[in-house]
Amino acid sequence: MPDKVGLHLCFDEHGREIEIIDVTPLSRDQYRIEETPIFNPGIALGDIIRVKEKQGVSYYVETVQKSGYRRHAWLLSREAAFSRDIKDFTQLVTEHGGRWEQIFGGLFVIHMPRNTIIDVELEMSRIIERFDH
């Protein structure tokens, strides 16, 4: 499998919103997204996209294939985000074929296979409840 690279990816045809996203190159103009982009909520980890390169910037053209993951996201308090509960939960997610991201410290994103036996929403509601004062 090719190594991940940082791709200067733009979702705006005028080039105003460029972010560097970890991707896995699949062909000259196709990449698998390896992290959740901030500027396009319609694209997620594991999606395969097609881009058009112009002057060192790759412009998003289309999503070729959606990932097999179901995405869940929560905005957590600092206390919850860095808790033992979250650490244990991320281990469970990984053990069941999922992936997780923590963006800007408090945005917690889980990507789980669609056929998972884990009830992510229930588990997270239990964790959040412990920190909801």
Q: What series of H and E elements makes up the topology?
A: EEEEEEHHEEH
Shape: elongated
In percent terms, what proportion of residues is strand?
35-45%
What is the tally of beta strands? Answer: 8
Summing up helix and strand content along with how strands pair, one would put the structural category as: alpha+beta
The N- and C-terminal alpha carbons lie at a distance of 46 Å
Describe what you observe in this structure.
This protein is an alpha+beta fold. It is 21% helix and 40% strand. The chain has 3 helices and 8 strands, in the order E-E-E-E-E-E-H-H-E-E-H. The strands form 2 sheets. A 5-stranded mixed β-barrel has the order 1-2-3-4-5. The protein has a 3-stranded antiparallel sheet with strand order 6-8-7, covered by helices on one side. Strand 1 and strand 2 form a beta hairpin. The longest helix has 12 residues. The chain is elongated and about 50 Å long. The model has no long low-confidence stretch (mean pLDDT 92).
